[in-house]
Design brief:
mainly beta; Immunoglobulin-like; 11 strands; globular
């Protein structure tokens, strides 16, 4: 479902809820608040904020929308996520911040 008002688009993407995107004809890139290193890993993934904001919670979500793991009460600028026991495949990290916002990033477990 798309709702277009001025140059903003609301896209409903299960299981992530509504994403508010700006439509643009130029090739501007929305900057990320996170460093996720590496994005392709068999074991550990380092999640760090760039602006010293606190990570509150991280959810690991499969491509079918199932939350495979939820790490609560992190309250830190950095977290090392252990992917050892996840099956190989594509996952989404939904990272919640102390100010109530969240960001979703794709990772690949090999």
């Amino acid at each position: 479902m798309y709702l277009v008002a001025n140059d903003w688009v609301d896209i409903i993407i299960p299981p992530f809820g509504t994403t508010h995107l700006r439509a643009s004809n130029n090739k501007e890139r929305i900057s990320s608040n996170l460093d996720i290193i590496p994005t392709i890993s068999s074991e550990l993934i380092n999640v760090t904020t760039k602006d010293n904001s606190q990570i509150k919670k991280i959810e690991i979500i499969s491509t079918s929308g199932i939350i495979t793991r939820s790490v609560n009460e992190i309250n830190s600028e950095q977290y090392i996520l252990d992917m050892t026991y996840h099956l190989n495949g594509i996952y989404f990290l939904k990272i919640y911040f102390e100010n109530g916002t969240f960001q979703t990033e794709k990772i690949i477990k090999i």
